[in-house]
Write a structure and sequence with these properties.
The protein is of the alpha/beta class. It contains 12 helices and 12 strands. The strands form 2 sheets. It has a 7-stranded parallel β-sheet. The protein binds NADP nicotinamide-adenine-dinucleotide phosphate. NADP nicotinamide-adenine-dinucleotide phosphate binds next to helix 5 and helix 7. Belongs to the D-isomer specific 2-hydroxyacid dehydrogenase family.
C-alpha cells in the first residue's frame, strides 16, 4: 500500500475512505504544515494530501531534490500555495479539486453581495448592540440588488456560477473581464480592461486564481474607476487585491462597500478594515459545508488512487 500523509483535519468519511486505500498517516491539525514538516513529508511518504496554507515553495522542493513523494493531491481548487513548476522539476505531480467547490463558493459570493449591498452585517451589529430604535422608512437604506449590473473579473467556473445566479435569480445584467472570450449560457458583455468594467457595474466580483500572475490585479486604478455606490466582492484569494488600496477606498467612501471572504495576509485582518462598517468580513467560508468538503476530499483521494494505480490523474494542474 502506498504511504500517504493527510496533512490537515478532514471530514471523517474522507479519512475512512483514504485508510481503505492507502497506508495513511493522519496529521489531525487545523494549522498549515511548517517548512520542516513539508520537507519531511516529501522525504517520508509516497503521496501527500495538503491544503490551503501548506506553502510548498520552491525553497522547500530545492531542499528535497529527490523526494520519495511523487504526488501532492491538493484539497481545494486554488493551489497558489504550491509552486507547481518547482514541484514538477523534482518529479512531483500536483492535482486539485475543481468543480466540487464551484456552487458553494458562488453561494458565498451571493451571501457577501447581499450582505454588503443590504448592510446586513451592520444591521446585525445594530440589533445585538441593543441600540436599535425600530423600523422607519429611511432606516439603513442599502443598494437594491435586483436588476443591477454585475461585473465579473475571471469568468471561469466560479465566475460563471455567480453570474448565472445573478442573471437568472436576480435579473441582473452581466459584464466580465477575462483573458479569453467565453461561450456562456447567459447574456454577458466582455470588457477589454478591468478598469472599464469596474466603471460600468454596480457590483464587481473577483474570481481569478491567486498567485504571482494575479498579485494585486485589483488596486487603486480599479477602486478609482468604480462608482461611489458600487460594491466590491472578493471570494478569490486575498493577495489578488491590494488590501491597503481597498481600505483607503472604503474609508474615503469612494466605493459603496466591500464583501470579503479572503484577505491579503490571512488570517490577519488589518485593524483599519475591522473598524469599517461598510465592509462585510467572512472567515474564508467559501466551501465550508460538510458535503462540499467531503466531495473535495473524495476528489483528492481519487487523484491519489489514479496516480498509484498508474492511471492518468483526473485533475492535474
Ligand atoms: P477557473 O475555472 O480556472 O477560473 C479562473 C478564471 O480566472 C478564468 O476565467 C481565467 O480566465 C481567469 N484568470 C486566470 N488567470 C488570470 C490572470 N492572470 N488574469 C486575468 N484572469 C485570469 O477557477 P475556479 O474554479 O473558478 O476558481 C477560481 C479561484 O477561486 C480559485 O483558483 C481559488 O483561488 C478561488 N476559490 C476560493 C474559494 C474560497 O473559499 N473563497 C473557494 C474556491 C475557489 P481565462 O479563462 O481567460 O484563462
Amino acid at each position: 500500500m502506498p504511504s500517504v500523509l493527510i496533512a490537515r483535519n478532514l471530514p471523517d468519511s474522507n479519512i475512512e475512505a483514504a485508510r481503505a486505500l492507502f497506508d495513511v498517516t493522519y496529521r489531525d491539525e487545523t494549522q498549515p504544515m511548517t517548512g520542516d514538516e513539508m520537507r519531511k513529508a516529501l522525504r517520508d511518504f509516497d503521496g501527500v494530501l495538503p491544503t490551503l496554507g501548506d506553502a510548498f515553495s520552491a525553497k522547500v522542493f530545492a531542499d528535497v531534490p529527490n523526494p520519495r513523494c511523487k504526488i501532492l493531491a491538493n484539497f481545494g481548487v486554488g493551489y497558489n500555495h504550491i509552486d507547481v513548476a518547482a514541484a514538477q522539476s523534482v518529479g512531483v505531480t500536483v492535482t486539485n479539486t475543481p468543480g466540487a467547490v464551484t456552487d458553494a463558493t458562488a453561494d458565498t459570493a451571493m451571501t457577501l453581495m447581499l450582505m454588503s449591498c443590504r448592510r446586513a452585517a451592520e444591521g446585525e451589529r445594530l440589533v445585538r448592540s441593543g441600540e436599535w430604535k425600530g423600523w422607519h422608512p429611511v432606516q439603513m437604506l442599502g443598494l437594491h440588488l435586483t436588476g443591477k449590473r454585475l461585473g465579473v473579473v475571471g469568468m471561469g467556473r466560479i465566475g460563471q456560477a455567480i453570474a448565472r445566479r445573478c442573471h437568472f435569480g436576480f435579473g441582473m445584467s452581466v459584464a466580465y473581464a477575462s483573458r479569453s472570450e467565453k461561450t456562456l449560457d447567459f447574456p454577458a458583455v466582455r470588457y477589454d480592461t478591468i478598469e472599464k468594467l469596474s466603471a460600468d457595474v454596480d457590483v464587481l466580483v473577483v474570481a481569478v486564481p491567486g498567485g504571482a500572475e494575479t498579485h494585486h490585479l485589483i488596486g487603486t486604478s480599479v477602486f478609482d474607476a468604480m462608482q461611489p455606490h458600487a460594491h466590491f466582492i472578493n471570494i478569490a484569494r486575498g493577495d489578488v487585491v491590494d488590501e491597503a488600496a481597498l481600505v483607503k477606498a472604503l474609508e474615503a467612501g469612494s466605493i459603496g462597500g466591500a464583501g470579503l471572504d479572503v484577505y491579503e495576509f490571512e488570517p490577519d485582518v488589518p485593524a483599519r478594515l475591522l473598524a469599517l462598517d461598510n465592509a462585510v468580513l467572512l472567515p474564508h467560508l467559501g466551501t465550508a459545508a460538510l458535503e462540499v468538503r467531503e466531495d473535495m476530499g473524495r476528489m483528492a483521494i481519487a487523484n491519489l488512487k489514479a496516480f498509484f494505480d498508474g492511471q492518468p490523474v483526473p485533475n492535474p494542474v
